[in-house]
Amino acid sequence: MLDALERDGGAVTVAGVAARARVSRTFLYDAAQAPLLARLRGVADKQPTTGRPALPDQQRITTRSHETVVRALRDANRKLHEENERLRNELAVALGQLRDLRRGIHVPRG
Question: What backbone phi and psi angles, to 5 degrees, belong to 16?
Fold first, then answer.
């Protein structure tokens, strides 16, 4: 059962494991269960402190993959920033032309 919780990323606590195994917490704290309790604590220590269960190992993102994603997102963000700047400039020119047209001033396009 502990293998399944670790593999599936389920929350691992003494109370949770005891309830799932239908044993008392006292049973898990018994000296005869010391290796099991040590393993349970090891699995629990790998969980994030956010209170959410850890993802299974095969679903966790590697540092290299994470860096690739961050680079791609930064590149996309830079491109969007450049596009926004270009569109702001186009809008400023269009608004200036509109203002001139409303005032009856003809400004040649160029």
Answer: -65, -45
Q: Is the pLDDT of residue 52 over 70?
A: no
Sorted by sequence, the CB contacts under 8 Å of residue 58 that are 6+ apart come out as: none
Quote the pTM value. 0.43
Q: Quick one: 33 exposed, middle or buried, by C-beta within 10 A (0-12, 13-18, 19+)?
A: middle
Length of the chain in terms of residues written: 110
Report the alpha-carbon distance of residue 5 to residue 92 in Å, rounded. 58
Sequence-distant (6+) residues with CB within 8 A of 33 are 27
Query: Do residues 32 and 24 touch, judged by C-beta distance below 8 A?
Result: no
